[in-house]
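Workshop exercise sheet. Pairs work together: one partner reads the sequence aloud, the other fills in the structure field after running the prediction. Swap roles for the next sheet.
Pair: D.N. / O.F.
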Amino acid sequence: MLLKNLKNKNILLWGLGTEGSAVLDYLQKHNLSGNIRIYSDKPFDIPDKYKEMNVYFGDELQELLPQMDVIIKSPGVSAYRDEIVRAKEEGIPVTSSSDIFLDEIRTNQPHCKVIGVSGSKGKSTSVSAMYHMMKALGMNVGLGGNIGKPMIELIDGQYDYAVCEFSSYQAADLHNSPHLAMFTNLYYVHGDWHRGHENYCRDKIHLIANQKEDDVFFVNDRNEQLKEYCRPYNGKNKKFYNRPENFHAEGKELWWQNECLLNINELKINGNHNLDNLAGVFSILRELGLNIRAAAEALKTFEPLEHRLQKVALCNGVLFINDSISTAPEAAIGGMKSFDEDMVLISGGQYLEQNYDDYARYVQENSKVKMVCALYQSGPYLAEALRKYVTRPDFVLLEPQTLEEAVAKANEVLTADKGGIVLFSPTAPSFGFYKNFVERGRHFIGIVNELIKGN
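Structure field:
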């Protein structure tokens, strides 16, 4: 939806988190907030600067909806909510910060190319690395979405390029698409919001549903589920990476056809799986006509993001790794593949019917994994899969009650074995136990720091 279409409309702003607040600030700045009502399912402390606004909670929504001309919803509000579905059926337009941003840029700023990155895992690192390299090469580029600025704030930036991370929540009901896009992978996550796995996959791929004839999107050839859901979008728009004739990762190296561009050991980021995603990032850079060798050199100064295979501390030969961003079993498998040392895994979180068979099979195949601590809601399901598939006599399965207990036991085992890796890779969302993966990761870091103080 275009900003001009919001003028003199009765607007319901559903949600006042980071993105909702950014939308309200932007509309106030542009004198479009006169007829706004703010709604939240649950009461919250209203920031002082919004005290004069009309704010509603809970059951008041039923009276509000018939009065509204437009709904601007936050990402946390499911597109499958009965109220949202009913509003659409009654002809009330539903939009979002990312939807407004795409419509504005594509309609009113033809000089700016939007680059959208999505996927189940690896989005944030991919987007941040791309932005870092483009900035280093002198490009006028903005960073937004789940990382960087809320997308609506990029509208006034007058950028030549906008690199944006799109979650499945943001992509689900877009009315426009980025000029260029890439998908890292597609796994099972976020079932509740999407009312099922099938909807989640379709909503993720919806990012490119409205691409124009000259737009392009890149697909990771090594992810079968991703390729399957991208199959309906055949044509010249679709290109692949991680094929020998294009950018592809091999072991610890990233290649452009027959030329090795870089080795993971030259970078500050951890994890060989990041090279899979970087193959897609470099595909975008080459599509833009940028110098890929100069970009590869610039990547060497890129600092890794927190909570993504983050090195926390080294104590008595034991290295603690925080991978709290891991919300799928496949992410933990990628983490395990990133290290050659003996390791103990700490996994578990909210149970959303994740399948742990491949996780358990990989633990069986990887003799370096000495122990798994399975905890929280998904812990029993994880443990069940491990008992089914892991038959190595040297393997230990624990089901501790707390994260503190898991960290202490992992440290004890590896210290006795003269060192190794403690990999905190939850494989599941944090909801119900923590506000988000950041809070979860900080809890792990705090436990590790307290443990080290006591040694």
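Discussion prompt: The mean pLDDT is 93. What would you look at next?
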